Task: structure prediction
Amino acid sequence: MDLHGKDLICTQEWAVEELEAVLSLAAEMKRERFTHRYNNCLAQKTFFMFFYNPSVRTRQSFECAATELGGHAQFLEPGAMRLKTATTAGETIEDAAEVMSRYAVGLGIRILEDKISAYGEGDDLLREYARWAEIPIISMAHDKYHPCQGLADIVGLREHLGQDLKGKRLLMMWGHGALVRSWCSVQENLLICSRFGMDITLAHPEGYDLDPEVIAAVGENCASHGSRFEIIQDSKAGYEGAEVVYGRNWMSPQAYKDGVLDKPGEIEKALRHPQWICDAEKMALTNDALYIHPMPVDRGHEVTDEVASGPRSIIYDVAENRLHVQKALMALTMGSLEDV
Amino acid sequence: MDLHGKDLICTQEWAVEELEAVLSLAAEMKRERFTHRYNNCLAQKTFFMFFYNPSVRTRQSFECAATELGGHAQFLEPGAMRLKTATTAGETIEDAAEVMSRYAVGLGIRILEDKISAYGEGDDLLREYARWAEIPIISMAHDKYHPCQGLADIVGLREHLGQDLKGKRLLMMWGHGALVRSWCSVQENLLICSRFGMDITLAHPEGYDLDPEVIAAVGENCASHGSRFEIIQDSKAGYEGAEVVYGRNWMSPQAYKDGVLDKPGEIEKALRHPQWICDAEKMALTNDALYIHPMPVDRGHEVTDEVASGPRSIIYDVAENRLHVQKALMALTMGSLEDV
Amino acid sequence: MDLHGKDLICTQEWAVEELEAVLSLAAEMKRERFTHRYNNCLAQKTFFMFFYNPSVRTRQSFECAATELGGHAQFLEPGAMRLKTATTAGETIEDAAEVMSRYAVGLGIRILEDKISAYGEGDDLLREYARWAEIPIISMAHDKYHPCQGLADIVGLREHLGQDLKGKRLLMMWGHGALVRSWCSVQENLLICSRFGMDITLAHPEGYDLDPEVIAAVGENCASHGSRFEIIQDSKAGYEGAEVVYGRNWMSPQAYKDGVLDKPGEIEKALRHPQWICDAEKMALTNDALYIHPMPVDRGHEVTDEVASGPRSIIYDVAENRLHVQKALMALTMGSLEDV
Result:
């Protein structure tokens, strides 16, 4: 299997065996953090990071990953780029991508929230870069998907539940709060967990549907495994028997109005649902469930301190795994493995 | 020949043999990109990059260059520096330059467009840094010159026209558009191409004269080779017989008014000349000319897509060469070549 | 002595023997800059730098330090982080610090001036990070202290006055000017110089008292050595017999009003004292004193050009020493010394 040069925009577009190659290398690299045989596979090579939106953790983990592989991640804010649009002069993505392919071994892009004017625009941009670039395009979280988060979730779940996740019961639960989060992490998690055979309950208040295409894909993933997929609008019922609880806020499908993210409206709407919080009382209904979240956690809204800092919370392990899966991904898609 | 410690503000200030040393090393480094014997000549060393103006490509290529030589380029935005001016308290360039000389092996500076209040101010600033710094000052594009772009142009032309450029015919043509570009790339190209013996036709509308001192120097360069230098105000006549066409927008000599770059006025004025575009019909008049441009290209204004993406366009090769000439330049002026 | 994992928020909290370990390694690393046996002790490791306030020199010296030890310093602007506060949703310092401890080997933080609403807030923030992080927290200058500057001062003074500073006479003199500087560098210098047995005269106009707790600690340091500590409100009297003059502006204790740094008020107040400048006439009264300053120097206000650029000025040496003490500090608190 040769993953060299392959884009990663959504895990759903990779074969399970390809995902397994990344996951098993990530686990290896976690055990042998500074001694793994691929540890110089990016020596003197450059990975570009395009942050349309700022991010602390994604930037930290990608830049660490390149450093730990002997290379260097350049932190670029494309706000400084004059890209051609329908109404303004500037550079085409074709030109930008062709030149970057001459300099670097890969390009990560993050674009979501207020840097797009409608859901899907970020995904379109990544695919336009992927069309022209000769180097891999890696999503560092965009409006639709967050593949590296999904891979980190799986590594974390396997560390705590064992290698075979088939039939394990996941509750993906909407949480209230004032952060108006994108759909990328939760959609990615639903896709990859269903891909690995988990039973899934998705719980959210009325008016918080996710992307219908993603929901359809999750349904097909579950069907192919014969596993369960249900969507409920109850803040409590899903906990019973759950082995993993993923509690996270997300915006409504009406969040973008006239090309602008309506943050005040979304906050006001989300705060109407204070019962949508993951707390110890509800966790007591589960099958000793793990608590998982892509961070940053909005404590007091999405989850109580007691749960987030409790013995079944694996949030720091999953955050750490971002580093390892990204190292594995970069090694396999961009690294000089023949040199090791 | 020892180039260690030498500033590069304009290629005209270097001997041709010195430029040839950079050019030939750049060609070598391109062939042996990750295996060249100088590939660790900046190991654990720092190159400072001062970006008064943002730039994607210049930053990418310089930071990659340092990484590929084993070192690290620090991206610094001197907007955060409080420099002393006639009216405000702050640090002198003497103090800033003396301390930076203790930390780094070289300092690149980019300053042009809206970060200066009159043509020539950027050049003055670089020379003030060069006066005090004990490390090489490298222009990363300033109002007057862009030496690394000029060197990359020559590498690209030689790759496609052969090593000896003497007598080859260059058309430097103004293009219309809304980007109000500085003179640095075109002035640098005229200087270095005339230095290497090319025949030059400079074509622009009335009111778009370049720096008279630069034009005089180009004239002298041509005279010393017995080559031709003509300036015309015709958007078509210069194409006949050309072997290289460089089509690029630039601002007028009236662009700075009362210390401010008058962008709206310049855009309005430039857009009055829509016939000043490099298109396939005009390129058909040439001697199968190469199309060259320092990028980013303003497609649809400076040049049509058909030409920019056509078989004779070498824009991506030239952009790639920025990396290689900058590596060669850094190796020769800042590197520890004795260690290799 | 094992310094691995130790925070450095103020030198006063370290034993003298621990400070000596850093100082002697710094001197060694200065002599053997690219050949020292610890030169790869951060290989492929990451140091995070959190700049709440911008800084050119601190950023340059820390990033160079990590590079020269084989590692990489990530420049992070936590303005992009949504931290939880009393009134806004966001991430807790607990969560941020726990995750960063999984990625990096150390975290430097700079917070002072307009990024705090009252003196002491920056110090509280560093201690909150130190509470949760499993990696060393290093002050890169905060409202109260600037330990790396203090260490660099001592290396510089020893280079020029000899290893034993006991009984050497330091004049710390307030300077007028428009820069409204924090107390961190001067407080740190008073603490560390008194720790090493120097006699100290602190001179400032009425209304420019420093932190009473720091002054008390300086008094105790002096008492334990039997050395002298006096505070005077005279712009000239302290020069007589001084062997070191540290001339620097600082803000008044009334600088923060209603949670905001009152810059215009402070500038107006400071400029009322033009006689508070270190000049050649006053320096002639000293015992051929060295001039020392943490830079950037406000020439013409704090000190005249004649003194700052004169033969007894050691400002560039001290600035250079920032690099070496930070390398030594990082090696001892974060480095893999067992691997060398």
Observations:
- Chain A has a mean pLDDT of 96.
- Chain A has eleven helices and eleven strands.
